[in-house]
Amino acid sequence: MLAVRDGRDRAAFGALFDHYAPRLKAMAIRGGATPALAEDIVQDVMLTIWRKAAQYDPARAPVSAWIFRIARNRQIDIARRSRRPEPEALDNAPEPASGDAGAGDILGLEQEAEALGRALLALTPEQRAVIERAYLGDLTHSEIHAETGLPLGTIKSRIRLGLDRLRHELKDLRS
Predict the structure, then answer these.
(1) Residue 137 in 3-state DSSP?
(2) Band of the pLDDT at 20, cuts 50, 70, 90?
(3) What's the Rg (C-alpha) of the chain?
(4) Which of 111, 89, 108 is nearest to 100 (CA)?
(5) Which residues contact 115 (CB under 8 A, 6 or more apart)?
(6) What are the chain's domains?
(7) Taking CA atoms, which of 30, 33, 131, 152 is between 20 and 30 Å from 167?
């Protein structure tokens, strides 16, 4: 690893890859990944190791711990991304023949959008910024952390508190 870090040694990286790739794949499969996904994780982890080799510090951790930590974090990111709720399927029913029913639907959607806009304004600026990144920007917590530098716990708390506030503000829309 030191040869990769200090000299960008491709042969040393090849040896590192040959040694760790099967172990990383086995770890990913034990963690619930399919073999194809496990191979993707291994490729991504090894690419990250090559790109971030300069960050490796043998005084802080052995190379195996550093590599397996990268793999574990990557697998967690993938699992979180896959657990995101999918939007509900849209009903592809034909539009009503009269223009009034369509106008009523459009008016209802506009009113809901206005209510959501007002509810978002009721949030603290910090909560609103994190919720917009997570739900409108479709960013993971890790991506928000990378953009803002906020701790993951703070990001999660702001999202949770903001969503609770939005539920309270929009409770009248449900009825």
Answers:
(1) coil
(2) very high
(3) 23
(4) 108
(5) 169, 170, 173
(6) 2-82 (1.10.1740.10), 117-174 (1.10.10.10)
(7) 152
